[in-house]
């Protein structure tokens, strides 16, 4: 960072209580008071260079002592002392950090070249144009200091010139960047990377106040030179620099007034960042949008900002990972309580947009793939939040049911989430278990998962019965398919029946045979319909009997175990539902082993 040295004399200013004076053999004849500091100085070095002091001391004699109050001088006593030292010829250093206050104070004192050639204002302006504006970090540092004197800096053109210089350098092609910059990305070292990264400017610009940062970003966007992703990266870097994390938001180490003041500042930063996000999809990551959304809920941002964040996150929801969704709820002090309502709000908005766009889509496979990715994401997310002790069944079920049927290829991942929830919440009531497992479609489980579910003792009885029926139904269909005649047998049978028909027609004896054939055909058809109806009722009858008997067995457990024996051609069979489930599970295991 560049600096300008003026003067050669040693600094002889010293302080006695609240008085600053100069070591000199000549008595002080100029007393200047600024705030709580009193300066004892001399007219002869200051008046020739300061037009303001000349006017204020115009009516006084040379030997008369003058007292002045300059409380409204920009930059205060520090800036005035720089001007006073310049008048005395004492050595001072001017840099980007004290340039603004020095120039404003010199302008206030009218230390122009019209008063005396080579005056302070002329030297400061020359340093500003030739050194500060030519440097990258000097321009940024100078622009930062304008926040202390915004009106003076704006009126003197310091802000505009610094912003123009910064924008010009940002738009410079990376190969032509020759100045020093800050770049501390993880894993990046300048020695290994000889080329300048495209986002080399983002960290230095993030040091600016949000209003100045906004001026630069909006000016850059208006040029349409840089891609939206680069603008989004600058917003991401700025948010990481100024917005606290979720755990910091919920810390209670500061007073209420400080917390409210900090909230107000962070709220303004967040709302400004959201307003600057480019409209192009992918300009910022979905993980970044979820972070902003989670913070916005705590800060209490406007509904417009929150709605916009939900909309933007829903547009890129399919690109999210489970880690992008894991934010603790701001409504609870427990850090492990995940905010499922936030995820559900984004999911519902995604589904609205998906339903609106998918019917008229040219490439329907893209929309199907999109919603399938979201369905898998939600089921994976449910497997994580199921481990939370504070997760309510209603919230878990509500989020799972929000996912439409088309979004799930199967229910394997959903079953895993339910199984984890049952393990982590062993004290669940029967009603909650029934409600939880009611979202599971047993027909959409893979054979491996269904085999595991049949042996899962955590599942309620009704779910196990459904699983057993589907296993049985699948086995019966497989058996019946093996008994069906093959195509060539059907053809041979048709030929034989044709030959028989021709023989009977030649004998003119169709009457009795026709009646016998019709009667046999009717009996076979009736038998087929009866068999079909009985198969259709099998699932319902089996489930009703087993559930009813299971409930009776539970309610009468104090009186003894209820055992019903029914006589059949093969002997007595135990109809206890729990024993039937055990036998079915053992058969299932035996089948798997085979």
UniProtKB/TrEMBL annotation:
<feature type="compositionally biased region" description="Basic and acidic residues">
    <location>
        <begin position="533"/>
        <end position="579"/>
    </location>
</feature>
<dbReference type="InterPro" id="IPR011333">
    <property type="entry name" value="SKP1/BTB/POZ_sf"/>
</dbReference>
<comment type="similarity">
    <text>Belongs to the NPH3 family.</text>
</comment>
<feature type="region of interest" description="Disordered">
    <location>
        <begin position="476"/>
        <end position="594"/>
    </location>
</feature>
<dbReference type="InterPro" id="IPR027356">
    <property type="entry name" value="NPH3_dom"/>
</dbReference>
<comment type="pathway">
    <text>Protein modification; protein ubiquitination.</text>
</comment>
<feature type="domain" description="NPH3">
    <location>
        <begin position="199"/>
        <end position="474"/>
    </location>
</feature>
<dbReference type="Pfam" id="PF03000">
    <property type="entry name" value="NPH3"/>
</dbReference>
<dbReference type="InterPro" id="IPR043454">
    <property type="entry name" value="NPH3/RPT2-like"/>
</dbReference>
<feature type="compositionally biased region" description="Basic and acidic residues">
    <location>
        <begin position="513"/>
        <end position="525"/>
    </location>
</feature>
<feature type="compositionally biased region" description="Basic and acidic residues">
    <location>
        <begin position="486"/>
        <end position="506"/>
    </location>
</feature>
<keyword id="KW-0833">Ubl conjugation pathway</keyword>
<protein>
    <recommendedName>
        <fullName>NPH3 domain-containing protein</fullName>
    </recommendedName>
</protein>
